[in-house]
Amino acid sequence: MTWLLGTLTVGFLLYQWLPVFTLGLLSFSGPTGGTTFPMNGVSLHWYRELIEASIMNDFKPPFGRSVMLAAACSVVTCVLAVASAQAMRGRFRGHNLFFYLLLLGIMAPGLLVGFGVAIMGRLLGIEPAWNTTAFFVQVSWTLPFGFLVMLAIFNRFDSRLEEAALTLGANRLTTFRRITLPIVLPGVIGAALFGFTLSYDEFPRTMFTSGADMTLPLAVMAQLDRELTPELYAIGTATTLLSLVAILACTLILVSLRRTARPGS
Amino acid sequence: MSTIRPRSLPAYLLALPAGLWMFGAVVMPAVLILWVSLWGGTAFGPGNPITFANYERFFANASYRGLIANTFLHTLMLMAITGVLGYGIAYFLVMKVQSRAWRTALFLAFIIPFWTSALIRAIAWVPFLGVNGVINQALMGLGITERPIEIFLYSRTGISMAQVSLYTLMASGPVVYMLAQIPPSLREAAMTLKAPPGVVFRRVIFPLTLPGVVIGQVLVFLSVMADFATVQWIGGNKIALLPNLILNFYEGAQLRAAAVVSVVLMACMLVGTFIAMRVVDIRKLGT
Is the pTM of this model over 0.90? Predict the structure, then answer.
């Protein structure tokens, strides 16, 4: 049984990774290489194409927009996630409803949410744009994840530390700023990371709401509709590596924070 | 006592911005879609008469009715595959892998793709499945087939293959969580009482992980029901499911028809989630 399950697991991991590796490998194919094997040489040709792109398929402006949008979503997600998780600790009337309202952002399909916001914009006479309507709808996707992270963090939080501060005469704001926030900081970083990567990769919500100036995933989709080229593989490899580096950096920050937070070390 | 008092004014004020944001970005749009789907007349504005004519037109079309059934069947099939596969992987990672280093490595190999772009991962399947794709080249290289098989790209097989790799983690994650919560003493007690492994699994382990299974299945259900992207790229324009119809209508500027399909899709999802919620309480996962 163990062998069967082990084979299944390793088999699945191969199945999951092989296409990604193939994509990465093909992105280094020669100038005459196509979208499948053989590679026709090894080169950085397709990465150079990305940087020296023509106007028709220049991915740099969409990339810039995506990064800015992701950064904005990340910041707003952090602030709102901490606030709403704090609010949940206050067990206010209707906190159950509030919980489900936030969870709805994960459950509701992006296609429908994006379509609905597009209709809303049309009825209100708001032009869709990547930094207004798309931002508005993307936060409804990133916030619930940040909220869940902060809920989990506050679940394991030792309130006695706050009590001690309050008993010693600190007011609630100071206690939050000096005691609560530093302790939950790893969680806040986690929420920020969630916000960034989820927004950076988002397309169904953005599709209807970003207007003429596209984000990176939409530009990739548009290019895919025109033609599949190794250039897309180069983008895919580059953004995948970028995500991995971001995850790695944040994991390292979390680990080092936990080390310093541990008493006696 | 914490920095926030129960039922205090600050508790409400802290919840208000997020609540309003979610209401404005998720609840209101859904209500608007429902409203627009009921609009009669020809102009796109709030003055239209309310009618069910849009729905009558939709359900009168047999190919649209077939599409609903097709979407359900496809989703059920994926739930079954990812459910079995995901449970097997979760069980292996939590219960069978003893070495901590190996377990961490396998976990990471399993989870990392979830963090990277679903769009890129879907695209990655295209060179794999095509007529000159990796699978066909491998099959021909091994001498299994002489000519390329065309069933992979632009077919339901290809779509399912890509979706299995995209969504198995969703079926598996909650099970991993529930399995990790089971105290080892429970299993030891059952085994001391001479229960055979099969019985321990059926009567002890599986019931304890059931909430995880159900939640994983809900996640897969919701994702596959709404996945238009994989279907569009790997299925080409030959295969369509319910969400692709929304996109088609939207691009054809038929907003009312798109709204009708959206409401139908929403209703299907609500029914599915409601059934699952009757089986387990999702809030139990957090405690």
Answer: no
